[in-house]
């Protein structure tokens, strides 16, 4: 699920860094806030791997899901926060596939 947070007092979270993949690559479905959402294949595999322990909740920041990719103005504004988001993460995970 998605949650809006304040960067002044963020919860502990992990940031995921991964290669988006080719623009015309395969998209797969994930459940997000009770609805099916499309995610690029590489992100789908990362999430599937990271979710192997279904008994523990994880708080993740993932650019493709946390930034509205359809809103160019928001996307440009949010990119300016990415350094801070990665710096404040408890852990930065790098998914190489």
How would you describe what is shown here?
This protein is an alpha/beta fold. It has one domain. The protein is 30% helix and 25% strand. It has four helices and five strands; from the N terminus they run E-E-E-H-E-H-H-H-E. It is globular, with a radius of gyration of 13 Å. The chain starts with 13 loop residues before the first strand and ends with a strand.
Mean pLDDT: 89
Low-confidence stretches: none
What is the end-to-end distance?
23 Å
| C-alpha Rg (nearest Å) | 13 Å
Query: Which range does the strand content fall in?
Result: 15-25%
Order of helices and strands: EEEHEHHHE
Number of helices: 4
Basic shape? globular
Q: Give the spatial strand order of the biggest sheet.
A: 4-1-5
Number of folding domains?
1
Largest sheet: 3 strands, parallel
Total strands: 5
